[in-house]
Amino acid sequence: MDQSMGELMNHTADMGQAQMFSKAWYNEYFRRAAESPTHSRFCEAVYGRDLCQHGMMDTDEMDFLASLLKPGEKVLEVGCSNGYITEYLHQRTACTIRGVDYSDVAIAQAQRRTQGKAPALDFRCVDLIHDELPGGDYDVILAIDSIYFMGDYGATLAKLNAKLAPGGRMIVAAFQAEEENDPDTILLPGHTRMAETLQGLSFRYTQHDFTANIRNHWIKNYEFSRTLQPEFAAEGNEFLCEARMAENGWFKDHAERGTLVRFLYVIDHNPNLAPPGLQGAR
Ligand SMILES: C[S@@+](CC[C@H](N)C(=O)[O-])C[C@H]1O[C@@H](n2cnc3c(N)ncnc32)[C@H](O)[C@@H]1O
């Protein structure tokens, strides 16, 4: 898990449910979220559109992301949850998209809902740490707020890079927070942990700044979880509200202190990077 997420976990350890962000926790989250009118209202208010989100990407950023995809491209989305974002991007861009996630509840929801859209939309249950990624030769691999859960950034990028077609690209949306012992430069565009990892592996990339969006996102996320708390409770979905509150205090503090940035990294396939396991081999 990424270091910033580790810091966040220290603040959320006492939630009293299945460990936050575990597979069991996400299964519970998506089981409830898919049926919850209040969760839909929350997403509409916070993200600008209800796509059952659990990340930080608002509609501006999503529309920018859609503008980077071309019709007919073969796309893999890692950490796709229950696939509403995947489906939206497919509708907007006419890409063929395979979504993978380890929440079998979320994947089953996506499969049921999009049955008629196969094979252009396809969903598989995959643990991004322990399982092989299905298929290969992807034109694009998308990771929207899922890269934090895949382990070491360098190993993850090498693993994803190995699944790209020559000339393909990865699009990674990720935040960076500044913690106590971090260097003063960590929030600067070329100095986030992701940027330094990309440079260390000689990737060519561009990064697009969505810092203003993410700061605004966390302030709204904080406010609406509190405004809608009675409605969540009336549905018996305190879990969903508590899940949001468990993280949004930490993020809102960072947003208000100006110690939180966000970038969308568009990363070219690196043909010279050995797949994981072969690095260092002759
Ligand atoms: C923060 S949510 C983001 C979901 C979605 N991309 C969005 O922006 O709303 C992270 C997603 O990654 C998935 N995930 C976390 N760890 C995973 C793992 N080890 N393997 C596969 N999926 C994982 C979760 O189930 C969840 O759907």
Q: Which architecture per CATH?
A: 3-Layer(aba) Sandwich
* Amino- and carboxy-terminal Cα gap: 30 Å
Q: Which sequence of strands runs across the widest sheet?
A: 3-2-1-4-5-7-6
Strand percentage lies at 15-25%
Average pLDDT figure: 94
CATH superfamily label: Vaccinia Virus protein VP39
Biggest sheet features:
7 strands, mixed
Instruction: Specify the oligomeric state.
Output: single chain
3D architecture notes:
- The chain has 282 residues and is α/β, with parallel strands linked by helices.
- The protein has one domain: Vaccinia Virus protein VP39 (Rossmann fold, 3-Layer(aba) Sandwich), CATH 3.40.50.
- The chain is 43% helix and 18% strand.
- It is built from eleven helices and seven strands.
- It has a seven-stranded mixed sheet with strand order 3-2-1-4-5-7-6, with helices on both faces.
- Helix 7 links the parallel strand 4 and strand 5.
- Helix 1 crosses helix 11, helix 3 runs antiparallel to helix 9 and helix 9 crosses helix 11.
- The longest helix is centred in the C-terminal third of the chain and has 20 residues.
- It is globular.
- The site of S-adenosylmethionine has 19 residues, from loops.
